[in-house]
Amino acid sequence: MKKLEVNVHHLTRVEGHGNIKVRASNGKIEELKLEIVESPRFFESMLVGRYIDEVPHITARICGICALGHTTAAVRAAENALSWKAPDEVMWLRRLLMDGETLQSHILHVYFLVAPDFFNVGSVIPLASTHPDVVKRALRLKKVANEMCDLLVGRKIHPVSMAVGGFTYWPTKKDLSRVKELLEGARVDLDETVKLFAGIAPPALESPTEYVALRSEGDRYEFVHGRVASSTGESVEEKDYAKLIAERTVGHSSARHVATKRGCYAVGALARYMLNHDRLTPWAADAAKKLGLTPKATNPFHNNTAQIVECLQCVDEGIEMIDRLMKVKNPPVFAPLKKKAGSGAAAVEVPRGILFHHYETNDDGVVVRANCIIPTGQNQANIEMDLHRFVPALMQGGKNQDEITHACEMLVRAYDPCISCSVHFLEVEIA
Amino acid sequence: MSKPKVGVFSFASCEGCQLQLLNIEEELLDLLGRIEIVNFREAMDEKRDDYAVALVEGSIVTETDAEEVRKIRGNAAFLVTIGACAVTTGLNGMRNSVAAREAWKRVYPDRDFDPNVAPEVRRVSEVVKVDFEIPGCPIDRGELLYVLTTLLQGQVPRLPATPVCDECRRAGNPCLLDRGIYCFGSITRSGCRAICPAYGESCCGCRGLLPGAPIEELIEILDKKGYSREEVIVRMNQFNSRDDQVKPLTGELGRLRKEVAA
User: Fold this and answer.
1) What's the whole-number mean pLDDT along residues B72-80?
2) How many CA atoms lie less than 13 Å away from A207 in the CB half-sphere?
C-alpha cells in the first residue's frame, strides 16, 4: 500500500471521546496520534476550596465505571493527609469492594466492548439474538458486582458509605453471606468465560515495554495498597510516586506525557499480572495457563486476557475478605476525622491501572491543592508507541485501509481506555 | 409497528448515567426488544441520526457541546435529559465559581486557553428545549426504567415533588440531623429512595432543590448543630451552585469569609 489514512472520529465502545489519526505513505508513518477530545471539566480547580470529606464524593464523579476506585484513592489520600491509618477491617472491606469493581469493569469491557470485534459485529446488541447464552452470562456476571456494591455501599456508581475515616454503614452478616453466595455463584460463569476466550486468538503484535503497578510487601496480588513498582525492578513508596513517574516529552510524540526515566510505560491488568503473577490464586493461575498468558508476553492485546484472569483472582480474594469480615466481632464505629493541615498521596489499582490522588489541606481541612494521575493518561504514550509498531506490520501484511483502521481501533480498545477520566488530568504538572 | 428509535448522547459527565442503562441488566434484553438503539457511542459502532427519542447526559461546557446538542434537538422529537450534570449542571457547576480562564490556568498552566471552552457551564435546558428530565447523580435505575416504559406506553411519567425526608422517614432511617450531622434531605427532591441517609451519609442535594425549598430554616437548624452559615453554603454549592435559590447565598461567601478573618 502506498498511502494510508486512518481517521477514527469518536472511537466507539470506549468510555469517553477519542480520535485516532494515522497518516503514512510508502510504508512510512508521517503522523500518528491518539487524541483526547473530551470536554474538560476542571476537577482540580473545582476541588480547591472544598472540605476534604467532600473530596471522595466529588472525585467519584470523575468516572462512572471506576467510581469506587476514585473513591478508594481519595479516601486513602485524604487519610494520609490527616495522618490517620485505617484499621485492618476497613482495609478488608475496601479490598472486597475493589474486587467487585474490578470484576464488573472487566466483564463490561471483555464482553460488551471487546467481544463484538471477535464476533464481527458492531455491538453487543446483535449478539443478544445470535449468542444469547454469551450475553446472558455477561449480564449475570455484571449483576454480581452491581448487587454486591448495592448491598455493601448503597450503589455501584458513586458509592454512598465509603468515607474519609472508614464506612458510614457497616455491612451486616446477612449482607456478607449474600455477597459470598453471589461470588461463589459466579465461578461457573467465569470458568465458561475462560473457555470462550481460550478459543479466541488475539491479533499478533510484539511490543515490549515497561510495566508499572502496585506490589505489596506481603504476598498479595495487590489492588489497594503497596509500593509503586516497575517491571525494571525499581520501586518507591506511594508518597514518593513522583520519583518514579513524571510528566515528560516522550520521543515519538509532540505532546507531553507521563513517563518514567526510561520513557513510556503501560499500566492496567497486564501490568499488574507482570508484577504480581507469582501471587495469583491456583484457580486464577490455571486460567492464565489455559488462556496462554505468560510473564513473557509482549502483546498488548493480552491486557484483555489478563482482565479475565483477574476476574477469577477477584472472586477468590473477595471470598477471602468476606471470611475475614464475618469474624469481626466489633465493627468499627464511624467518626469524622479531625481537620488539620497536611499533604497526602495514595496509589490504588483501579481496573484500568494504577491511579494516584494527592491532596493538600489547610488547618480547616479545606483543600488547597489537588492532583490526580489517571491510568489512561499514563497509557496514552504507550498506546501510540504500540500503534507505531503495529501499523507498519499491518501494511507489510497487505491489509487494506479499512482492515488497518479496524485493527487500530481494536488495539486502542484493548487498553480499555477511560477517556472521561484521563482528560481532566492529562497534562497536569506533578507535585 | 416499527420500534421507536433511540439515541444516547453524552456531554461533560462521568458517563455513569448512560452506564445505568446497561445496568438495568435483567430488564435490558426485554427493553432492547421494544426499542431500537441507533446511536450509542459507548456501546456500539453504528451512528445514525434518525432517532425519535434522545437521551442526553452531561453538562454543556464548550461551544462545540452547544452546537451538538442543538443538532440532537433538531433530530429528536422527544429529548430526555438524564442525570444531574444535564438537569442542573450538578458538580460541573462548581467550575463557575471562577472564570473559565482561571479554571484553565489552574489545570493546564503551560497551555494557551482554548476559546472553545464556554464562559459558563450550562444545563442542557439553558441551550435547547427539554421534554423530560430525570434528575440524580447518578440516575436511579428503577426510575430510568419507569420513565422509559411509561413513555413507550405513550404516557407522560411523573416523578415525585416531595423532599427526600419523606422517603427517608418512611424507610425508617435514623435522622442524621438528630445525630448532629448536616443533611439536605429537607430541601432536595425525592425519588432516590433516600439511599444516602439509608447508608449513613448526608443527602448532598444531587437531585436538585425543591422550588421554594426551606433553605433559611435549614441553615438555622444547622447553625445550632455547629455548622456555620458559610460551611452550609459551600456544601450546597457542591451540587446546586446553578440553582437560583442558592446563587444569592453564594454571593454572601466573600463577606462571610471577611467577617471570619476579622
Assistant:
1) 96
2) 27
- Which of the listed ranges A83-92, A247-256, B149-158 does the model predict with the highest average pLDDT? A83-92
Q: Which residues of A touch B196 (CB under 8 A)?
A: 154, 160
Q: Are A367 and A48 in contact (CB under 8 A)?
A: yes
Q: What is the CATH number of domain A3-423?
A: 1.10.645.10
DSSP state of A16: S
A41·B95 Cβ contact <8 A = yes
B 17-46 near A (Cβ less than 8 A): 17-20, 22-23, 25-26, 28-29, 32, 37, 40-46
Task: Count the neighbouring beta carbons within 10 Å of the beta carbon of residue A65.
Answer: 27
**B18 has a pLDDT exceeding 50:** yes
Is ipTM strictly over 0.85? Answer: yes
Count of CA atoms in the C-beta half-sphere (13 A) of A97: 34
Cα separation, B262 vs B258, in Å, equals: 6
Handedness of CA B133, B240, A147, A316 (dihedral sign): positive
Nearest CA in chain A to B91: A58
Phi-psi map region of A292: left, alpha, beta (phi>0 left; psi -120 to 50 alpha): left
Q: Is A9 on the interface with B (CB under 8 A)?
A: no
Contact A142 B64 (CB under 8 A): no
User: Domain segments of chain A: what residues?
Assistant: 3-423
| Interface membership of B224 toward A (CB under 8 Å) | no
Question: Comparing B164 with B37, which gets the higher pLDDT?
Answer: B164
CA atoms within 13 A on the CB side of B140: 16
Which class for A400: exposed (0-12), middle (13-18), buried (19 or more C-beta within 10 A)? exposed
Nearest CA in chain B to A120: B45
A127 reaches B (C-beta below 8 A)? no
User: Which pLDDT tens digit goes with each residue over A20-57?
Assistant: 888 888 878 888 888 776 677 888 889 999 999 999 99
The answer to whether the pTM exceeds 0.90 is yes
- Name the one residue in this structure whose C-alpha cell is 503522523: A31
Query: Among A37, A46, A63, A117, which would you mutate to test the B interface (most chain B Cβ atoms within 10 Å of its Cβ)?
Result: A46
pLDDT, residue A376, reads: 83
CATH superfamily of B5-152: NADH:ubiquinone oxidoreductase-like, 20kDa subunit (3.40.50.700)
Domain ranges of chain B: 5-152, 164-261
Query: What is the H or E stretch that residue A24 is in?
Result: strand A18-25
Q: Is the peptide bond before B109 cis (omega within 30 degrees of 0)?
A: no
CB distance from A14 to chain B under 8 Å? yes
